[in-house]
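In response to reviewer comment 3 from the previous cycle, which asked for concrete evidence that the modeling workflow produces usable outputs, we include below a single protein chain processed end to end. The sequence was submitted unchanged, and the resulting structure tokens are shown without manual editing.
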Amino acid sequence: LAVAPGAANFLLVRTGAAARVREALFAHRVVVRDASSFGLPEWVRVAAPPADRRDEVAAAVVAAAAGVAAE
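The workflow returned the following structure tokens.
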């Protein structure tokens, strides 16, 4: 996965197929924005989660992207 550098309270993460990754993450109660409307169909925007959920959200993003790539 690639993460775009930035100084905002969100990350842009290149996941491959943003719409499918968004759907997979929603099943894990992780809501991200598909960045296709920004002209970035391979990227999702992930808001900075609370500290106690960061590891969980990061693992979910990695797993969802891997699952979509394996399809």
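The longest helix spans residues 54-70. We consider this sufficient to address the reviewer's concern, and the full set will be provided in the supplementary archive.
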